[in-house]
Amino acid sequence: MTTPVLTLDGLTVRIPTAAGTVHAATDVDLTLTTGQVHALVGESGCGKSVVGAAICGLLPTAATVHGGITLHHPGSVDVHLDRAGARTWRKIRGRRIAWIPQSAATYLTPVRSVGDQLAETCRHLRSTHTPAALLTRVGLEPAVAGLYPHELSGGMAQRAAIAFALAGDPQVIVADEPTSNLDPDLTEHTLQLLRAAADAGAAVLLISHDLDTLPDHTDRIAVMYASRLVETGPTAAVFADPWHPCTRDLLAALPSGGLHPIPGMPPTLTDLPNECVYHRRRPAPGFSGGPTYIAQHGDRSVRRLIGAVS
Ligand SMILES: Nc1ncnc2c1ncn2[C@@H]1O[C@H](COP(=O)(O)OP(=O)(O)OP(=O)(O)O)[C@@H](O)[C@H]1O
Ligand code: NI
User: Locate the ABC transporter domain: which residues (predicted)?
Assistant: First the structure.
């Protein structure tokens, strides 16, 4: 049985920049559940990492957040992360929510061995695991503990990143493109490790561009376009019968879909109206713009245009 662990309720993130206010995430509703791997996909710059960063309390300080980010724990009170201060985050990060970055090299200190840093993380989190057990769990030899970060191959570094994330037995794991630098074998191995973490009870959010790998490795998918979710549902159902034109176009751009790139360019996020703008990229029949709404059908949802013909 799956239980909701983390709920995003109308998450809206705005980032002020010299070029204007970036609409980085708008009205994002998403529930992460125990034991499931949830994919978050969409074109580059659509806001996926911002959603992941919001869940992990890692947004830039200038960002403003509206809407709810709620962490649930059976038998305990909900934690409202959208209002959490530094003290709450110190208790939560690593222990209840962990982040797996794209490259482990970005957060490891070059001057200390992997084992040293993993031992320090375990002490800090009061982990019940030893560094050796964590390395074994992600398929690394115990001898890797003695290596320095620059001595790790890309695949080893990514496994090490997962070992660090597993140290605190987090309820939620956010992995931001963990396979983007890996060959197919290492990609497969990394996705299996995320599946194992979910099987052990975590809710995993996998931000990914490798759509072809998702049906085999994820339970649910959320498709994002220009800061908004346009479609969510079980991965197999969405791949078999995509409802939103954006999802259809993303799938058609894959080798398995015939390699048809999406025409046009993604919009600039500093100048967005209060509606889904995919119809501007790919005009819908008989529709020239206007508000959208989310239609819910069982365990699937799709953003529809009010007044569109189809
Ligand atoms: N620190 C920041 N300051 C200003 N703008 C930012 C910042 N971080 C992200 N953005 C902007 O927010 C928008 C969403 O970015 P985000 O990194 O979430 O996209 P993404 O979907 O993860 O893209 P990619 O697939 O390339 O990683 C982009 O327009 C980006 O330029
Ligand atoms: Ni990103």
Answer: 6-251
CB 269 within 8 A of CB 20: no
Tens digit of each residue's pLDDT (9 = 90 or more) over 119-140 = 999 999 999 999 999 999 999 9
At 217, list the tokens: 């490795």
**The pair of three-digit structure tokens given for residue 179, joined into one six-digit string:** 């396979």
Show the CA angle centred on residue 193, arms to residues 154 and 101, nearest 5°: 50
Angle, CA 124 vertex, CA 171 and CA 118 arms, to 5°: 85
Write out the two tokens for 31.
């529930």
Each domain of the chain, given as residue ranges in start order, spans 4-96+170-305
226 close to ligand 1 (CB < 6 Angstrom): no
CA trace torsion 12, 96, 116, 156 (10° rounding): -70
Beta bridge partners of 99: 174
Expressed in angstroms and rounded, the spacing between residue 25 Cα and the centre of ligand 1 is 9
Q: How many other β-carbons are positioned within 10 Å of the β-carbon of residue 60? A: 12
How far does residue 109's CA lie from ligand 2's centre (Å)?
A: 23
The structure tokens listed for 49 are 């990492």
- How far is ligand 1, taken at its centre, from the CA of residue 46, in Å? 7
* ipTM of the modeled complex: 0.99
Measuring from atom 30 of ligand 1, which residue has the nearest CA?
45
% pLDDT > 90, the chain: 77
Contact 188, 215 (CB under 8 A): no
**Alpha-carbon dihedral of residues 233, 236, 241, 244, nearest 10 degrees?**
40
Tokens of 287: 């529709």
Q: For the structural domain made of 4-96+170-305, what CATH number should be given?
A: 3.40.50.300
